[in-house]
Description:
The protein contains 8 helices and 5 strands. It is an alpha+beta fold. A 5-stranded antiparallel beta sheet has the order 2-1-5-4-3.
Amino acid sequence: MSATFNPLSDEDHAILASYFPVVDGIAALIGEHCEIVLHSLEFLEHSAIYIVNGHNTDRKIGSPITDRALWSLHHMQTDSVSKPYFTRAKGGVLMKSITIAIRNGRQHVIGLICINLNLDVPVSQFLSTFIAPQESDTSVNFASSVEDLVAQTIESTIDEIQNDRNVANNNKNRQIVTTLFEKGIFDIKDAINQVAERLDISRHTVYLYIRQIKQDNE
């Protein structure tokens, strides 16, 4: 007999499926020593509907929910995130875990994301995930407003193009606009005005460059 927690609607199933990329993203960020399990609360005996890095606990899709996950669910009440807790998986592997509730539009809990960090792996293996490749681009603009984001992106792009000897001086502005276009900065309202003002060119010139870029891409 199936142990049903809550019958789920098609909308509920769609909500849970929308979390698949979230599971993939967390796993890609933290690495193979972090197991992420997406549980549906419809059938508890095979609640795991998506899992990444299941080798850490030898679980797979169709595995049942854990007693600790259920305990976390019943103690979260109105909150959606449990306090971090420690558990031991099969083989005595020490895990640091957290459980996150997934709610539908009626605020009913329909699923859980359980994140389990394997603490028994060698520190060197764990840290290797967080070491940037030597030739990787690590620049990111953590701006406090969209205006600052545009301004910082413009300045970094100007520096980049001005220092590029392969770009002719009479083509610098067009290349700056091209690079800003590729970075998606013109998706932000009023970015064209900021670019035109900073480069001391007209808005019409910026529009012209953008039209030419779009034509070239077509």
